[in-house]
Structure formats: C-alpha cells, structure tokens
Amino acid sequence: METYQSCGREYGPVEEDGFHLAVYIEKIVPIRPLLNGLSEAFADPLTDIGADLMDIDPNDINGAYYEKCAEHLQDVMRNEQRENETAQQKALEKYSELDTPFYLHSGISKDAFDYIEFYILFLAILCVAIAVPTFAGEYQTGGDSILRTTEYGRKQLAITKMLAAFTLCVYTNL
Fold this sequence. Notes:
Layout: H1 2-11, H2 21-28, H3 32-41, H4 58-80, H5 85-96, H6 116-141, H7 143-149, H8 155-173
Helix pairs in contact: 4-5, 6-7, 6-8
C-alpha cells in the first residue's frame, strides 16, 4: 500500500493513462493482485463499492486486514442475500475455516512449464508423421528412380517436397 501511495503522490494517479509505464511495470504490476484484494476488503459496507487505494491508511492493513475481509464478506452477504440468513451464516462459517495468512497464487500450475519439452517432442513426432508419406510413396513404388532422372528431379523436387511437408506441419500445428 505504501508503494502504491508513494507512486501516486510522486507520479500522479496510477490508474490514469499518463502514468509512467516503466514505473507501473516495475512497482505496481507485482503487487496488483494484492491491491485488488485491499480495495475489496475496505469497500463501502452499504454499496460494496471498492475503496480508493489512496484513501486506505497503510496502518489499518497491518493488524486488521483479515478482520476487514470477514466484515466485507458479512456486508456482501447481508446486501445480496437479505432473505436468506442461512446462506449468510454458511458463508461466515466457511470463511472461518480458511487458513490465514492468505497466499497469492498466479493461477498457473507450478509444473506447467515442465510439459513444454513434451509438447515440443509431440509436435516434432507429428511433423515427422506428416512428412514421411511425402517422401516414402515414390520409394515404395520405385518411382523415385524415374523422378531423379528428370530435369527438375533432384534438387527442385526435393525442395518442393520439403516445402509441402513444412506447410502441412505448420498448418496442422496452428
């Protein structure tokens, strides 16, 4: 919060178009998900409109963040589930079961990048499987010996077949 507010005081409103992009990327982007949570936790209890981050006192965050989250949940449930008191109670019970402190996860599996090598290998095998019939057909029938004796049979035919196989591989992998 202190980082966000100091950037806002030094460079102007963070959310406007004129804010320095390099500063935004360096200082604001890494903490952006946390800031969204703060705006929600300190929202107006009657309207559920998120608080302006420049108005939140950083000292309020240190000791009262989780209590503010519980209060905000209670306010939201009261505003959206007026007639359903059991839903309000159930939501508060579920919230009390959560472990604190909260941890921020990016939403990407930690091992997602481990599969990149597998995908590359799979695509390579797929491309080979697409390209093999392009070259194997003439060798099976014996037509390759005739094609190599023609005027354009050596280099140009091989280049054309490779381009055709490459085009099929690219088209298939899109």
